[in-house]
Amino acid sequence: SAATFPDDQLPLEPQVTPGWAVSGTILTITGIIYALVGVRGKRLQTFFSTAFLAALGTTVLILYLMTPPVSHAVQGAFVIAAVCTGAALGGLALLFRDLTECLGCALGGFCLSMWLLTLRPGGLVGPDQSTGGKIVFIAAFTCAGLCLYFSRWTRTHGLVAGISFAGSTAAILGIDCFSRAGLREFWAYIWAVNGALFPEGVDSYPLTRGIRVELA
Fold first, then answer.
1. Is the CB of residue 176 less than 8 Å from the CB of residue 212?
2. Model pTM?
3. Arithmetic mean of pLDDT, 95-102
4. Residue 192 in 3-state DSSP?
């Protein structure tokens, strides 16, 4: 097996680039709006729920396909791709609000699963577990959040909790783009979609003080 990467060289030192600055600003502003106002307006909630999920899916695909290092210009193109995809699908979702309103609960469940996974160095589902275990963990919480929508007894409370948690998560990730604590890199480590993103030999990821503050 690969040797453990030296602990004093982790976490990776994030850089504040133009792409990250734009991403951080967008995430912080939209996250706060979504968390505080989303549940009061169905159109706003539907748009942002779909947009965040679409941008998230685009980001995972980009991470899977990219080959580091990436220039600032390419980073900007990635940001445009994620934002435009989110905005386009968010706008399209407004035409089908009866079908897409439930995505607020699903997004909240996903964000809760990621919060739990980042509570332990290396991830709550540790390196000794298969990637499939992480997928099942995330899928289970996402589906559990989605299920809250389908009962009139839990729908309102599920939307309030899901939207608030998802919005605050987006805002914190936006802040992380400037604080350089490394939470977004921790997310990428947990997803394990591209081994080239981290140096060879990395089999864990530290939970630094900055990350703990952002999680709190």
1. no
2. 0.89
3. 87
4. coil
